[in-house]
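Protein folds are increasingly written down as discrete tokens. With that in mind, we are printing a sequence and the tokens encoding its fold.
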Amino acid sequence: MTVIPIEFATPEYDEAVKLRYNVLREPLGLDFMPEFLAVEYKDTHLACYDERYTLLGCLILSTTTSGYFKMRQVAVADEWQGRGVGRKLVEASETLARSLHIPKIELNARATAIPFYSKLYYTKVGEPFMEVGISHLKMEKLLSI
């Protein structure tokens, strides 16, 4: 498995959007609005591929006004869940953040993903809240730079 950055508005980006839709949006009956995707041009997009260049997973890193990364839209193909793809993507995000001297990554974890992020030493912040109709919890990880 290899994690690499992908560029906005490329075939790789389109493939990642399709994966995000299949894993994150379609099960909730949600679609992507064009204006939602249009603002992603300024974000960092990471994708995990196997040796045949098959997309296994992806995520987005947005820079917050506080200078941190916000990790979002983490999606792993159903057949690859539980096989280290998510961990590889998160670790690549942390490596990138450290190289850019970004001291913290924050995210809004779906309730079902909290144990995954907890194993990677992300800590819970605040109380659960509803987002896109499901329970989430803000989590963060301070990075040593």
